[in-house]
Amino acid sequence: MQKIYKFVIVKKSILMLLLMFGIAGCTQNEKESNTEVAQNSVFQLNSNWENQDGQQMKLADLNGKTVVMAMIYTSCKTACPRLTAEMRDIERNLGKYDPKKVRLVLVSIDPEVDTPEKMKEYLKQNDFEGEQWLFLRGDESSTREFANVLSVKYKQISPIDFSHSNIISVFSDRGVLTFQKEGLNSDVNEIVTEVKKQLKNS
Amino acid sequence: MKSILKISFAIISIAALTSCYNRASVAAKEVPAVTPQSLSPVKSDKKMISIGSGTYMGFLGKDSGRIVQVKSFQIDESPVTNSEFLEFLRKNPQWTRSQVSGLYADDAYLHNWQGDYEIPKDAKPESPVTNISWFAAEAYAKSVGKRLPTIDEWEYAALADENSKDASGKPEFTQYILNSYQKKGMYREAIKQQKPNYYGLYDLYGMVWEWTEDFNSVMISGESRNDSSKNESLFCSGAAVTTSDLTNYAAFMRYAMRGSLKADYSVNNLGFRCAKDL
Prior knowledge:
The complex is a heterodimer of chains A (202) and B (278).
Chain A: H1 2-21, E1 49-51, E2 56-57, E3 66-72, H2 80-93, E4 102-108, H3 116-125, E5 133-137, H4 140-149, E6 154-158, E7 161-164, E8 167-171, E9 177-182, H5 189-201
Chain B: H1 2-29, E1 48-51, E2 54-57, E3 67-70, E4 73-76, H2 82-91, H3 134-143, H4 151-157, H5 171-181, E5 209-210, H6 237-242, H7 249-260, E6 270-271, E7 275-277
Parallel strand pairs in B: 5-6
Antiparallel strand pairs in B: 1-4, 2-3, 4-7
């Protein structure tokens, strides 16, 4: 979390600097996500998604489940395998849990290439089996919108390569973002604690 | 006959009551669902300009110095105004200041408006709408059957000065842009007071910054250290080497602005215009 704040500060100072050069005045307010719980739910997003079995769904279908989510793409050779490994670590560290109450979700940032077959294969290769594992793809605009909800940045830099932020997010059973872990490091303790807390509350 | 009616009425009422009761008890057990919101279409007669396909020199990071292909497209001749946005709010009250979801907008969203349907005191109906988040700009564009322009489209159309499609080689054009960035409070003025560029586009410079569809593809500063591929930062020496044009300080500012934004931010001098495929 500390890291995220650092970025916000860095970004803000950049913004301020720009505004000093440019046209005047800017108001930035940090959002207090705690105050309006249901109002901030991602279940409001009307976008359509397809899972590894080719089934259509909406984010609202995750209602009632604590969600851990990462945005990756299957042909990625650099950071995604590490993000995937962290998802595995998180799952292992959850201990015993009801798979009906949890969804561990990968969302593709390369929906054109990541067909349901590829997504299914990717889950299988990683031994991500069971109803709690989900791989989703949307169209380009839904993907961009959802990335913006998570403050994930990405850019296609060649036909098979993307540059992207490495963020794992936790959502409450009502679709409210409660925690984000930014950057690649192997310490999953904080995020595991958060998921357990959410499961307790649900 | 009367008694049959009475009895059947009683049965129906009991049935109705119990079904309500059942539904209520089921609903109480489930987590209350949030229904996704849909948009009501809005009519817009805003003039759009067709921009022919072409190429331009990418500015940043991996695109730097690369020839970027831009397909032909249409773009609004001027930024979306307060009155146009007001029309959208009337049809889509879920986007008014008091009702907007915290998912889509920070607290600064339309903060300068006098009410849900009252534009800012110090601005004109024909001033560009500002203090709107990326989500709001996206929703507006969808409601009028359009989309936001991509960074490539915006930059490509903005290469033009009054007389030529590509004025990027002219130092006086860069100077003009930089001067325009120094004017203050221009977002309170009416659109289309300056001369249009070669294509007939107004106010690309000197009025407001503009949202683009893929603004979140610009990765700068601290963030890139944590990114999968080292995306060259604008602010370290690595970046200076990889930007295509060291003198293009104006483009540098636009990219830095984009990289510093999040989609729920609202800023006094950040507006938008829409685009469309051809």
